[in-house]
Structures are given as structure tokens and as C-alpha cells.
Amino acid sequence: EANIVCEIQGEDVLQLSTTGKKKYAKELLLPAKVDPKSLERNYTNGVLEIKLRKKSCLYGKQNRQDPKVP
Questions:
Q1: How many whole angstroms separate alpha carbon 65 and alpha carbon 59?
Q2: pTM listed for this prediction
Q3: What is the mean pLDDT of residues 30-51?
Q4: Taken in order 41, 3, 18, 8, is the CA torsion positive or negative?
Q5: Residue 38: strand, helix, or coil
């Protein structure tokens, strides 16, 4: 688990890499912008689970009014 590095680049790219004897690197384009501080990972029985929160948009669920366009 300590050999797996997960990082968010920008707001929508997930970078995975490993260190040690077997090296691996992968970049994944995420379908939505995410909050980099929300990154949670869990490695159990050979399965890496990554959780991220979507970045809240300007007009979120609490304020569903569309912006007024003059």
C-alpha cells in the first residue's frame, strides 16, 4: 500500500503510480471536476478503492435558480 501513489492533477486528472520492483503509471481523465482534498484510498486484498467528491458547481442543489441574463 505504501508503494502506491495517488494524486489529482488540476481538477480532473487522476495519476496513479507505483514504486519498487514493479513500476506502473497511469493517468485517468475523470468525467467531472473533483475536490483534490477529498481523495481517499483503501488497498485491501489486492484491490485499490479510490473515493473522490465532485467539486461543487456554482449553482448547486441548494440554489437551483438559474442566473439572470440581462
A1: 7
A2: 0.69
A3: 91
A4: positive
A5: helix
